[in-house]
UniProtKB/TrEMBL annotation:
This is DNA-binding transcriptional regulator, AcrR family. The keyword DNA-binding applies. Residues 35-54 bind DNA. Keywords: DNA-binding, Transcription, Transcription regulation. InterPro entries: Homeodomain-like_sf, HTH-type_TetR-like_transc_reg, HTH_TetR, Tet_transcr_reg_TetR-rel_C_sf, TetR_SbtR-like_C. GO terms for molecular function: DNA-binding transcription factor activity; transcription cis-regulatory region binding. Transmembrane segments: none annotated. Pfam families: TetR_C_43, TetR_N. It comes from Rhodococcus jostii. PROSITE patterns: HTH_TETR_2. Residues 14-72 form the HTH tetR-type domain.
Amino acid sequence: MDASPRRPTRSDARLNRERILAVARTAAAENNEVSLTAIAKQAGIGIGTLYRHFPNRESLILALYRQELQKLIDLVPELLESSPPLVALRRWFEEIARYGRLKFGFAEVIHAATSGGVDDEHYRPFVVAIAQLLEAGAADGVLKPGLDPEDVLLQLSVLWRIDPAAGGEARAARILDLIVDGLRVSAPPR
């Protein structure tokens, strides 16, 4: 066991890590096959610097995954404060669809590394975030009471199986309509 105290991350190292993640997020949204060398070049750093932060492609993918999940979790209180519950729910689901486009192609790596999600440190907070949205909607009378947030998560998981290159954005919007309609107290007339 290492008894030496951990040194705080230097600010330049922190900035490099943030820049790598930002470039990787953009690159992954455009093409999930982008190389680590291309990411390092776009981030304006050497490949050795990238490897110090992320020893392999999987570690970079998992860091992106964790960062995006935390952003989604953190967004719930903000949405509930600024929008009616049904609008907040729909906007959050749209963000999940956007995240699904990022996750497409990486799902197998993420699934394997997180034991299918249940053992993931973000799983429970993500389910709690869904529960907050569902409870707010039920209290407002627009969503069915007693909905199971894990059931809703299973419904949403289809979003990261939609190929963004094959009309994925339109398909995701249609699927979100189906999910939201199923959660509502009564579906709106068509």
